[in-house]
Predict the 3D structure of the following.
Amino acid sequence: GRFEDWTIDLWPPGHTFLISLIIRASGEQYYPAKMLCLTILAWSVALLFVYQSLGMIRNPIARAAVTFTPFYFQTFRSWIFGGGIFASEALSLPLFLIAVSLFVVWARTDRNRPLIYMSLALAAAAYFRSYYEVLGNFLVAAALGVVGVKLIYAVLAEKIHAQGTTFRRALAGVYKRVGLLIDSRQRAMLAAVLVFVAMLLPWRIYNLERGVPFTWTTTDQSWAAQWKPDSELPVFLVSLNTPCHIEPNICSLLRPLQHEDTWAAPRLGASFYKTLSIATYLKHPWAWYQYKSRFFDVLWFGPNWSVLMSDHKLLLAEGLLILFAGIGTLIAAGV
């Protein structure tokens, strides 16, 4: 049905496949414990990668402190200490940290393999959470942009230099200039792009066969929600309905029409809400900033620790296990 299509469009198959693999290999019994062990292992490896990538920080205590900074921010902490083993972020976030660490290693050394491994880790993260596909696409565009500029320069330079020569000789000159301009670093970027694109092809092909857009991530479902009142939004989507607060009169007029709407199939169509939302942002940019800024501390730093201590003791215990396992990994690795 439409709702099933919506959930498939938002969530790639990585987490579902992993759950199926665990159950197929060892049965359903004690599944949470098995997933917790896998989550702890993933975070321990990720933290070790982060620590090793921070070679520019000589003091080991300072480096360890920087390694564990993700635990301080809401983006990571809400999943580490809040439902980690039940959500795909349990593995997509560690994979993302591994990818960032490998990129840092590539940037500060003359080794190129870390960039290839980074593309593998980022593609793996995309199979668990689709927004990493968007991030990967930006990196693909950046890499192709760098190489493309050099290619254009080579063509123009050879055109100026080889006026009056044959096409074959001019083409050979372009090839030679490109070889001189594109060094091993740029070639590594192109290789990483090819690896990332190839890794994502299976799910892209599957989506194309279903008539879904080529991209993994679609925001169509969120536009209608931007015109819903606070009472109809889950707490983790706080501030999503900014247009509703900027234009409360329009929001109240839309509310009767939205009464039987679903996120997957808004009655007025996603394009209507998208156009209305963008027009609202362009008309009131300062109002948008003012309202969004009220949630900066909540979105970045989250609720205080007392919430976890009072309402989510089991999830807090899970997060502490991950934290201590990460510390133990660094100690065991002799860092």
